[in-house]
Amino acid sequence: xxxxxxxxxxxxxxxxxxxxxxxxxxxxxxxxxxxxxxxxxxxxxxxxxxxxxxxxxxxxxxxxxxxxxxxxxxxxxxxxxxxxxxxxxxxxxxxxxxxxxxxxxxxxxxxxxxxxxxxxxxxxxxxxxxxxxxxxxxxxxxxxxxxxxxxxxx
Length: 154
What we know:
Elements: E1 2-9, H1 17-26, E2 32-35, E3 44-48, E4 55-61, H2 68-82, H3 87-98, E5 101-108, H4 119-131, E6 134-137, E7 141-143, E8 149-152
Helix pairs in contact: 2-3
């Protein structure tokens, strides 16, 4: 099992695996990234931290008739449109409708979440900042890219 965090972005570009590794290294995290493509065209990457199970990211574009981005967005819109209308729910709805790509981060259940900043936090923040993404965390809800909770959802 894993805990999933989705980054729903209005842009199709993403930082290259080497940029991600450099950003995490600059924050002092001892990690290695393995990606199918070393450039910004990666679709899957694996983040390894010594002594821990890897975090996995899958990047999908909102292209074609049937794609995982549309499926996720449709499901989220169904939930958001049932919520009380507020400026935050309108912000989430707008971000979902504008999303062009989704990065799905799978964090293993064994991941050592702690009181301090983790490599998963740093990865999500870096990707959200670079892709202007809305963040959706399973069992929590939607966050803006600064980490402010916009809409709580279980």
